[in-house]
Amino acid sequence: MTELPVREGNADIPPREVRDWWRDAVVYQIYPRSFADSDGDGLGDLPGIRSRLPYLAQLGVDAIWLSPFYPSPLLDGGYDVIDPRDVDPRLGTVDDLRGIVADSHELGLRVFVDVVPNHFSWEHPWFKAALATAPGSPEWDRFHAVRGKGPEGELPPNNWHSAFGGPAWTPIPGHAGWWYLHLFDTSQPDLNWANREIHEDFQRTLRFWFDLGVDGFRIDVAHSLVKAEGLPDGPVVDEDEVMAGSERGPAWDQPGVHDVWREWRRVADSYDPPRVFVGEAWVATTEAQAAYTRPDELHTTFNFHFLRAFWDATVIRDVIGTSLLTSSAVGAPPTWVLSNHDVWRPVTRFAPWRDAHTMDIATGRRRAVAMSMLSLALPGSAYLYQGEELGLPEVVDLPDEVRQDPTFFRTEGRVKGRDGCRVPIPWSGDAPPYGFTTGTPWLPQPADWAGLTAEAQEADDSSTLALYRRALRVRRESPVLGDGELIWRESGHDDVLAVERPGERPILVLLNTGDGDRAVAVDGEVLLHTGEVSLDPDGALVIAPDTCCWIALA
């Protein structure tokens, strides 16, 4: 192997045993309604999560992140919050959450919970109070009530687009010519962060859960909150452009949002040990993303540029290199992520089409697992979404009548939405509900998932679950993995990515994105491989396509 003249990452951070845990934690995201149901109502809940914590400890992750469990009408999967300082009674109680925190800490796991600061549910007492008054009242000042355009205000105040499709404005009932803003569903009115009361209320929310013992927050749409002064028109987007594609313009990534995160960082730093934030920020560049992790702001943000990378070694390398350079410039670690509750599962995303109607899921699974193993070997922290360790595909054929994502309804079914990645995960058995519940799951599970259950994979040393466990064990035991430095190496092939994690026992990571076997001259011990590897007559390591391997260099 030859060394290229590029070394990237945080080379001057302290050793792992004394550096901040969040710099290289592997965090497992739980979507509570789809993880484990304890009472047979078909809806996952907090006692179900608590019962499965030993599984996560055995998997080898460092922390869990719970998507919203707050009281909600569930018009947007729990992200439409009625009370951010309580638990939805269908999912449990505050004491159940306290039990999850206690058990997690006993098992060596930290706990993140979601916070949703851009909007409340329209069932929140504040919005109900606003609807009972006229625009211009103190109650409406908590939201964005704006006079429309046109002689009678009959047109929306501007051309802003909802991230779920359609307009971002809805008429205020009983007050002709007045509109309220919702960057997401109509049921999620945006909060007015120019109102100091909003800041104070969310600081109370932070302290409520910090005092209960949670270790940090994942911040929903951390690039929104603050809107451009005067609410000017933004770029014109297609009416069916939803989620990240529409998140640009004067409603997003405004400079004032960074002042909010500085306030929140002071709250987190007032605790001993300090609490931690990870932000969801779908922004245009890695430089803009890094701005959210300056030393006095958020600790980390999800690297969605990596999530969006397609199956090409050059593209993947460019994303990694740019991310490392921009994050190290502000002293923050990158945070690698391939899936979550908002995007198609990578098994399906990476699957090529066999023909106009059929996807090659087997190839998609090989590529998704290989990319995940690459991410776990890169400098920084990493996030896994529930079921990723089982190799679950996206459920693309849900019947329309069971769908619940507001994007499906706001686009009149033209965009199917995110329900396919939220289908309850399979634990055991040969048929639905696969041990998830004793009742009927809130979303139907495929009939062919028997071989993907945690129980089936427990008994198979060659399973995806077994591979993740090995990878997380090696990552935890190796001083050179996690946050730190990376050296780019030359593999001899344009379609084989080669990175070294330097140290006393360096590890080389190879990813073959080509369409055939590739031979790489390397001397060392193969620690982990996602596909076939062998030695050729000259002693070079031959790597099958769609394969990642970790090698401890001699």
Topology, please?
Elements: E1 2-9, E2 26-30, H1 46-51, H2 53-59, E3 63-66, H3 94-106, E4 110-115, H4 125-131, E5 145-147, E6 169-171, E7 178-181, H5 196-212, E8 216-219, H6 257-269, E9 276-279, H7 286-291, E10 300-301, H8 304-307, H9 313-329, E11 335-337, H10 346-349, H11 361-377, E12 381-385, H12 406-410, H13 454-458, H14 464-477, E13 485-490, E14 496-501, E15 507-512, E16 518-520, E17 524-529, E18 533-535, E19 541-543, E20 547-553
Parallel strand pairs: 2-3, 2-12, 3-4, 4-8, 8-9, 9-10, 11-12
Antiparallel strand pairs: 1-13, 5-7, 6-7, 13-14, 14-15, 15-20, 16-19, 17-20, 18-19
Helix pairs in contact: 5-6, 11-14
Low-confidence stretches: none
Mean pLDDT: 95
| H/I helix tally | 14
Shape: globular
- Helical fraction equals 10-25%
In short:
By secondary structure, the protein is an alpha/beta fold.
Describe it.
The structure is a single chain. It is globular and about 80 Å long. The chain has 554 residues and is of the alpha/beta class. Helix 5 packs parallel to helix 6 and helix 11 (361-377) runs parallel beside helix 14 (464-477). The chain has helices spanning 46-51, 53-59, 94-106, 125-131, 196-212, 257-269, 286-291, 304-307, 313-329, 346-349, 361-377, 406-410, 454-458, 464-477; strands at 2-9, 26-30, 63-66, 110-115, 145-147, 169-171, 178-181, 216-219, 276-279, 300-301, 335-337, 381-385, 485-490, 496-501, 507-512, 518-520, 524-529, 533-535, 541-543, 547-553. The strands form four sheets. The protein has an eight-stranded parallel sheet. The chain has a six-stranded antiparallel sheet with strand order 1-13-14-15-20-17. The longest helix is centred in the middle third of the chain and has 17 residues, at 196-212. 51% of the residues are buried. Strand 3, helix 3 and strand 4 (110-115) form a beta-alpha-beta unit. It is built from 14 helices and 20 strands. The chain has three domains: 12-118 and 196-469, Glycosidases (TIM Barrel), CATH 3.20.20.80; 125-181, Oligo-1,6-glucosidase, domain 2 (Alpha-Beta Complex), CATH 3.90.400; 484-553, Immunoglobulin-like. The model has no long low-confidence stretch (mean pLDDT 95).
